[in-house]
Amino acid sequence: MKYLIVGLGNIGPEYADTRHNIGFMILDELAKQEGAKFYHMRLAYYSEVSFKGRTLHLIKPTTYMNLSGKAMNHWMKELKIPVENVMVLVDDIALPLGTLRLKPKGSAAGHNGLKHIETTLGHNNYARLRFGVGDNYPKGRQVDYVLSGFDDDEKPELPALIDRSIEMIKGFATIGTELTMTRYNK
């Protein structure tokens, strides 16, 4: 069984470790834990890991956030992976830091990466792991907030949240969306 795990983010050192790049951060840690490396390929940095007889194809799109659907669509076709075996990792300002929510489908909720994926696919029936990054920003400063790094008091929480996200990815690929949601969503 093959799965496509899409970590959303923006390429470039100025975006590394920002709230908007949590999808990249999760996949970087997963690859590191599994001894895998990312390679620059068509429209994405690509890696793959095996887990319990499944192959997890990991991509970090190089298209920038607002064109994420282009990379996701390409890799789904290239690898012949059906949408029910796709999971998108995304930052969510509507959730407080520490909240992780797996959903089998849903709206883009104003997130430009998800909007582009929805437009490209023509639907929103794909799993997404929403990683809460909080909403501690002044009115109208949302972009600055998601493109900023995590605060010093938030950084100690990140490793455990990233590890929990990795457990949820592995759950998605082995026990499915519903059981993973029951086990991990809170």
UniProtKB/TrEMBL annotation:
It catalyses: an N-acyl-L-alpha-aminoacyl-tRNA + H2O = an N-acyl-L-amino acid + a tRNA + H(+). Keywords: Cytoplasm, Hydrolase, RNA-binding, tRNA-binding. InterPro entries: Pept_tRNA_hydro (IPR001328), Pept_tRNA_hydro_CS (IPR018171), Pept_tRNA_hydro_sf (IPR036416). It is found in: Cytoplasm. One of its GO terms (molecular function) is peptidyl-tRNA hydrolase activity. HAMAP family: Pept_tRNA_hydro_bact. This is Peptidyl-tRNA hydrolase. It comes from Mucilaginibacter lappiensis. The gene is pth.
